[in-house]
Amino acid sequence: MQIQNSEKKIGRINLTRTLPKPNQYTLALDGEFRDYAFNEERTPLNKGQWKTKFTNSQLPIDLEVGTGAGYFFQHQTLKHPERNLVGIEIKYKPLIQTIRRALHAGAKNAVISRFHAFDLEMMFEKGEINNVFVHFPDPWTSPKKPKNRFVQLRNLDILYDLQKPGSFLEFKTDSLVYFEWALEEIKKSRYKVEFVTFDLHQSEKVSDNFITGFEKIFINQGIKINYILLRKEHV
After folding, report:
1. How confident is the model at residue 4 (pLDDT cuts 50, 70, 90)?
2. Options 35, 62, 119, 138, the catalytic residue
3. If you ran DSSP here, which 8-state letter would residue 141 be given?
4. What is the DSSP string of 28-50?
5. Edge-to-edge strand order for the sheet containing 226-231?
6. How much is the pLDDT for 6?
7. Looking at CB atoms within 10 Å, which of 8, 60, 111, 116 has the fewest?
8. Quick check: is 161 catalytic?
């Protein structure tokens, strides 16, 4: 486990217990939602053991990278009770909003972690997860810092190893700059491109698409949604 700055960080993320002023969300992470929400120190302890954190340990485990306020997270857990879902989110307020929203709606297959998306290899064993959802991550277009974009070759290689064969990776973004840049990264990865469109809402995938809060804003502004579905093929 990579611990930095005299135990003030794990990987790329600051420790919750070192915060000078805890608030209702930081307290809820290790209090009210402790059984369903894992801070950055408890998360790596679940590596290889995530199935034990769910009511039904026999179900496949999917991952949402960056849950935001958790509307898709809630939708996914309720629509697919036959699958477990792990969410990751750095910011405390949306993290708590996400797990609270799912649990209050009756989800039995949801947990969430405060962890950095660039450190997933510290969180999961190889072959531990199934499908992955990456919806509207920070495009890092101003200032231009592509190295901070999640959908890049480094992270794709890590995810590919963490996923079981046959699993998919779904990526949506409103940023054409990010999407075109990511397509070049994807070409260098081991994933098979199963479907790609520069206008999701005029494609055959629109009927299966859950519209997130960000997505509603972009649609109302006339911004097209870019979408790609990748597959880790069976060996």
Report:
1. very low
2. 138
3. B
4. HHTTTTTTTEE-TTTGGGGTT-G
5. 37-38, 110-113, 84-88, 61-65, 132-135, 168-173, 226-231, 192-197
6. 46
7. 8
8. no
